[in-house]
Amino acid sequence: MKQSLQLRIGQQLTMTPQLQQAIRLLQLSSLELRTEIQQALESNFMLELDEEAELGQEQQDPEQPEQESHEEEAPVSEPSGEDIPEDLPLDTSWDDIYDGSTALSAPGEEGAQRDTLDNRPAASDSLQQHLHAQIELETLTPRERSIAEVIVDAVGDDGYLTQDTEELLAGCPSDEQVSAEELEAVLQRIQRLDPTGVAARNPQEALCVQLEQLPEETPWREEARHALLHHLGLIAERRYDDLGRALGVDDETLGGILNLIQSLDPRPGSQISDTTPDYVIPDVMVVRRDGVWQVELNGETAPRLRVNAYYASLIRRADRSADNHCLRNHLQEARWLIKSLRSRNETLLKVAGAIVERQQGFLDHGEEAMQPLVLREIAEAVEMHESTISRITTNKYMHTPRGTFEFKYFFSSHVQTSDGGEASATAIRARIRRLIAEEDRAKPLSDSAIARILHEEGIQVARRTVAKYRESLSIASSAERKEARRR
């Protein structure tokens, strides 16, 4: 093989560490960004919070900015020692008005340590913990208590048993030789704990236990229990006419029975959850000033950073020592991070501004005025790549007078209209929800009727599309709505 040299001219994008960092910061949510900044502050001594700038923004009066700035810059004269006597006359003693204790320094038990985060919202107990706590209060023998613990450990998050009787018996201590009758007796006691019906083997058992716990004078209690035991299939399939004939009751009695059954909880375990709520911090705020919608960055999501002037002054130009090299590296990383954060904020404002500009109808009139929008349109408006827009709109939230929405919420597909225009899928869903809310309760609108109304309004949408949008809104069909309202 003959070797040769060739010259080629081409362009290639090199993913430098700075570019990789900027791209990674773009796709971080507000909470992830705060964690990233905190880690950077802990690992890079060149970085520090720009608290003076944030404090100046909070205290500055927009009506008198110049006057306040002059007052801040004015030097403060130091009082001379001759003007202040050693003992000042006081009306009261310091100990009379301040006892030295605070909410965190209040004396408690000897040697006790107070947690400074006691005011945090504690996570709720899990379903198993909730049941174990009730078992401790029950009058059970040690043998029954051990059986109860085995049963509770086999309860799933939905409140149903995840093991059958044989598996539960196998999980009991072998030296106690628990019988199936003993297991059933303890199981019935657990099923009557809170929430009622927990540890049931199926929805039928859970609902029947809940019915038994109701007062005896509850109307239709026995009829509802009979319906659950013998005609659960008709109830599940919503065959209410057949159910009425099977029970031999009139429509009024049938409605009372069904209302009582629907007041029960087929998933008793869902009442107890150990998940903590997730809080959304908006990245940008949309406000209306002088009749114009404006976008502002939420300063709480990204604290301002700056380079520590003292450490930066320690760098010597001609010094090649290891310490000086470390200072230079930390300074360069600090500048990269500050520049990447500034670029992220600028991109966030540009994209949010472009979205608000195209969705002013939504801000003024609501969902029905939402315009169709795709990533390509915003990318062309801000002169960026679609991948950048996709990153900056993921897990980013916008606070508006109509609520807090993810950036992705404002993007939706379009449907052609009769005049050649386009309608947003979000606006069509809102229109469907409104039509159903205003329909005649005795004659609910079918999907075909809704599609016909939308055609008359110029929106060309098929019946199956209406059904898909209706199901995405968790709205029942016209037949189911009619049956529910008749009851």
Describe this structure in words.
This protein is α+β, with helices and mostly antiparallel strands. The chain has three domains: 127-271, no CATH class; 284-410, no CATH class; 414-486, Arc Repressor Mutant, subunit A (Orthogonal Bundle), CATH 1.10.10. 49% of the residues lie in helices and 7% in strands. The protein has helices at residues 17-26, 30-43, 51-59, 65-73, 94-97, 127-137, 142-153, 165-171, 180-191, 203-212, 221-230, 232-236, 240-247, 251-262, 309-313, 322-358, 360-365, 375-382, 386-392, 425-437, 447-456, 463-472, 478-486; strands at 47-49, 284-289, 292-297, 305-307, 397-400, 403-406, 414-416, 422-424. The strands form three sheets. It has a four-stranded mixed sheet with strand order 3-2-5-6. A hairpin with a 2-residue loop joins β5 and β6 (403-406). It is extended, with a radius of gyration of 34 Å.
Estimate the global geometry from the Cα principal axes: extended
List low-confidence stretches: 60-92, 97-112
> How many beta-strand segments?
8
Q: How many H/I helical runs? A: 23
Distance between the termini: 88 Å
Q: Kindly give the count of domains.
A: 3
Widest sheet, order of strands? 3-2-5-6
How would a textbook summarize the main sheet? 4 strands, mixed
Short note summarizing the structure:
With 487 residues, this protein is α+β, with helices and mostly antiparallel strands.
